[in-house]
């Protein structure tokens, strides 16, 4: 596993605990990641957390389970 992959995994762990943080892109290290949270449709208690670099367009998606009373 390369260093960039390891950084994405570390970011996923951080984001799952605190989704509203400012994180530098692990791919280019020159810009910050934009974070978009999208709830799943229906009764699934999950959200997708989309991460997108504003400079190099690197992207990743994290799916997280949430309680039905606290979607986000």
Instruction: Give the DSSP E fraction (strand runs of 2 or more residues).
Output: 25-35%
- CA-based gyration radius: 13 Å
Helix content: 10-25%
Number of DSSP strand runs: 3
Low-confidence stretches: none
Order of helices and strands: HEEE
Distance linking N and C termini: 30 Å
Overall 3D form: elongated
How would a crystallographer describe the biggest sheet? 3 strands, antiparallel
Question: How many separate structural domains?
Answer: 1
Number of helices: 1
Average per-residue pLDDT, rounded, comes to 89
Structural class: alpha+beta
Strands of the largest sheet, in order across it? Answer: 1-2-3
Structure description:
The chain has one helix at 3-17; strands spanning 33-39, 46-53, 59-65. With 72 residues, the chain is α+β, with helices and mostly antiparallel strands. It has one domain. A three-stranded antiparallel β-sheet has the order 1-2-3, covered by helices on one side. The longest helix has 15 residues, at 3-17. It is elongated and about 40 Å long. The termini are far apart. The mean pLDDT is 89.
Summarize the SSE layout with pairings.
Elements lengths: L2 H15 L15 E7 L6 E8 L5 E7 L7
Antiparallel strand pairs: 1-2, 2-3
């Amino acid at each position: 596993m390369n260093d960039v992959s390891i950084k994405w995994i570390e970011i996923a762990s951080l984001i799952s605990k605190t989704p509203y943080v400012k994180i530098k892109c692990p791919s280019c290290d020159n810009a910050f990641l934009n974070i978009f949270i999208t709830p799943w449709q229906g009764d699934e208690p999950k959200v997708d957390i989309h991460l997108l670099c504003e400079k190099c367009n690197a992207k990743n998606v994290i799916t997280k389970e949430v309680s039905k009373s606290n979607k986000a």
